[in-house]
Design brief:
The chain is an alpha+beta fold. The chain contains eleven helices and 13 strands. Strands 5-4-6-7-1-8-13-12-11 form a nine-stranded mixed sheet, with helices on both faces. It has a two-stranded antiparallel sheet with strand order 2-3. The structure holds octanoyl-coenzyme A.
């Protein structure tokens, strides 16, 4: 092993998802009702070429193109209401726990229980995700306060790679003297999904995950052997929502998630395969010895292709665990859900790769090894 960091391990993970889930069929029925209404209402403008005709969706397309069958959402009736197409949420007062902090606390408690640590054992809280509920105060500080953790906390955003970049921050904090880090990923994606567009209405789901990272040689967990982070600017996944929208008197309809999915697919698959291959080579680990590739959960076909490029052959299904069929793309949280659900399948000494990719572009790849106490 060329590069071997000191024994820093992921010793516990937690998962919270809301109770309500939407199937492809339900989502398509709602979009198609909206499209029919929209096209009828705007028939004259569409005929004159002033507005584009909106197009309907299909459940078969969604499953074939992405592997997604359902997604959890914070509030189902608002998303499915063709007159609304976004969750119906109650505004909370400043004295109430914010929604994102509430979900973060739920996932964190499970991760802390699994890692057998209490609030007193933790020095740092990081909330890493694609969408923050507000700019400040940092939601991570609210989670820290709700859990009674001392030390410091902050928010960070690297879109779908926020969890792996957050693991790097956790790793660095421990190398700098912190005892334990609580990393939380709360993705309430339904707040930023354009449910009017067939190109992206099916893509995302809501969830919260949490991980405990600590230096130990006596606790079961995944030892972090190597971390590789990479970014390269691209407009192919973009969201122009921001605090300057008001001042710009912005009118463009681009303040939600949008992407050129085909380009993303073509650019990102070879890039990720190259990064993982180089990382394994550098650390003298044979790709065949990777028991599990916990890849970003955006698209089943993408994950199968990346694994094939790295392994030089089709990967067995269990080698690249898939949770996106149930959860859809949960942005940063996807890799942690996959690890949480299947980490037990890996035995002492076996290797795994945790690799995210997404907007930026950003890629974060961790080579890990299972250690059983
Ligand atoms: N139903 C029926 N037909 C459809 C639909 C639909 N819903 N959508 C598109 N079509 C049609 C298209 O119009 C097109 O028709 P034609 O061939 O006549 O032009 C045809 O089907 C094919 O369309 P696409 O080329 O768009 O379809 P793809 O096969 O490329 O599949 C995917 C689309 C599934 C989106 C695919 O491209 C993909 O998964 N790409 C990778 C995406 C990816 O990984 N993105 C990462 C983004 S996530 C991220 O970074 C986090 C951002 C922050 C999160 C914020 C939360 C809100």
């Amino acid at each position: 092993m060329k590069e071997f960091y000191m024994g820093i391990r992921i010793t516990g993970t937690g998962l919270y998802h809301p109770a309500e889930s939407i199937s492809n069929e339900e989502l398509v029925e709602s979009l198609n009702a909206y499209v029919e209404y929209y096209n009828a209402e705007n028939a004259e403008k569409i005929a004159a070429g002033e507005l584009p005709e909106r197009l309907g969706s299909s459940a078969e397309f969604i499953e074939k193109a992405s592997g997604i069958k359902s997604r959890y959402v914070i509030e189902k009736s608002g998303v499915l209401d063709p007159q609304r197409l976004r969750p119906r949420l109650q505004e909370r007062t400043d004295d109430e726990l914010s929604i994102q902090a509430e979900w973060g606390v739920l996932a964190a408690k499970q991760a802390m229980e699994n890692a057998k640590v209490t609030a007193e054992d933790i020095d740092v809280v990081i909330l890493a995700c694609s969408n923050m509920q507000r700019p400040y105060p940092a939601v991570a500080v609210e989670i820290q306060s709700a859990l009674g953790i001392q030390g410091y906390a902050y928010d960070m955003n690297v879109a779908c790679s926020a969890a792996t970049f957050g693991l790097k921050q956790a790793y660095d904090a421990i190398q700098s003297g912190a005892r334990r880090v609580l990393l939380v990923n709360v993705e309430i994606t339904s707040g930023h999904t354009d449910y009017r567009s067939r190109d992206c209405h099916f893509i995302f789901g809501d969830v919260a995950t949490a991980s405990i990272i600590e230096q130990t040689d006596t606790k079961t967990g995944f030892e972090i052997l190597n971390i590789h982070l990479f970014t390269q600017f691209s407009n192919n996944i973009r969201n122009n929502f921001g605090f300057l929208n008001r001042s710009e008197d912005a009118t463009r309809d681009d303040k939600q998630f949008r992407q050129d999915g085909r380009k993303v697919f073509k650019d990102v698959c070879p890039l990720v395969a190259k990064i993982i291959t180089a990382q394994l080579e550098k650390n003298q680990v044979n790709p065949q010895d990777i028991k599990r590739f916990w890849l970003h959960q955006a698209n089943l076909n993408m994950n199968q292709l990346i694994a094939k490029l790295v392994l030089g052959k089709e990967a067995e299904a269990e080698r690249t665990p898939i949770i996106l069929d149930e959860f859809a793309n949960t942005s940063s949280a996807g890799v942690i859900i996959a690890l949480h659900r299947t980490g037990e399948e890996v035995s002492e000494g076996e290797f795994g790769v945790i690799c995210s990719f997404g907007a930026g572009y950003s890629v974060g790849s961790l080579l890990v090894q299972k250690r059983v106490a």
